[in-house]
Amino acid sequence: MKKFFKPIALAVFVLSACDSNPTKDVSTMSEQELVEYAKGIHERVITLDTHDDINTSNFTPENNYTDRLSSQVNLPKMVEGGLDVAWFIVYTGQGELTEEGYAAAYENADDKFKAIHRLCEELAPDKIGLALTSDDVRSIVASGRKVAMIGVENGYPIGTDIAKVKEFYDRGARYMSLAHNGHSQLSDSNTGERDSVWLHNGLSDLGRQVIAEMNKWGIMVDLSHPSKAANMEMMKLSKAPVIASHSSARALNDVPRNMDDEQLMMLKANGGVIQTVAFKSYVNAAKNSANAEAVNKIVAEEAEKAGFTILERSAMRDLSADEREAYMAKYSEIREAAAPRIKAEVAEIAPPVDVADFVDHIDYLVKKIGLEHVGISSDFDGGGGVEGWNDASETFNVTLELVRRGYTEEQIGMMWSGNLLRVLDEVQAVAKKIQAGE
Known about the structure:
The strands form 2 sheets. Strands 1, 2, 3, 4, 5 and 6 form a 6-stranded parallel sheet that branches. Helix 1 (31-44) crosses helix 14, helix 7 (228-237) packs parallel to helix 8 and helix 10 crosses helix 12 (321-349). The chain is built from 15 helices and 9 strands. It folds into 2 domains: 17-284 and 353-435, TIM Barrel (Alpha-Beta Barrel); 286-351, no CATH class. By secondary structure, the chain is of the alpha/beta class. The two termini are 41 Å apart. The radius of gyration is 22 Å and the shape is globular.
């Protein structure tokens, strides 16, 4: 059973990059000693990943997360990797800003809320519990179970009914972003950088009302995916700290989904936290592209030997469901045949983005805005994962790399969960004051 890292009051424990002195000198340890030391830390701290997408077909009595599915996150893999808390995501892709679009979006969100509750309340209540507060997290972990929390990715399902903010809160949502890929009725998306076409030039009037409503009920405002202008406006408007649930540092990898230094400094002033994301193309786009090119070349050569034609994504969309299933089965065979060559040849010429590259972003963020504003996320089952942390079973490798970099147990505990739970506590405290009319 876990022994708990207890967050130290920020008034006493405000760290800068140069304050990360380990309690033990890891430079004098053998590899075995270092691994054992890291295992002890990993066991004692609460590990929390703020972004794990779901497919509701994996939340049925016949097929669910109690089994070791192919999904990057499920209960056996969480146990294997020592991941304590998974934020399951009520994600909705952006559609038309019409009543029909809003209705379809709400139906999708409703299905995902129900699936998460079904797992925690019907399918595996002895193995996982739904947390609504930081105290819930600690209590459920102490009981020996894993923890589920709920985040909403894209406020699109709200439609134009602001009352749905309270409904989503009542159903367990504890953070929400106002947009995904594509402008919503609430906020512009980061995707506007592709063509410089914007819908609101930040937030819409309704979006501003939704921020106030989120503050009122205790839902953390999530900056991942909206545009920079929208994010800056949200931080100005929010009466409580905000989060970026799955973003990395734009200074290290210049993609719109990462946060630039101006946003980071405003996040620091706001008291929020950025949950550094292990998404290959957000961590190191150039390295990831080189690796993908090398891998695809080998796969193409193996496909040619087998007389198999690899299709573009656009061509795959034209296939029937049966044709697509047959195609993917054969493609998987080709990939499996290519695996020995990929392992032997690609690592030398174009290595994959790995845990060390990921922790480089953590190091940068710690130095830039302070350790108390930095957390960890994966975006598993939504495209996330790096070599060494490709699913929940490999979660320990992140702690191991942090120990190698000299972070202490207290600091690692803060990044894994303490910082995020501190923000959740502050957001909920602000909500109580607003509700009380203070």
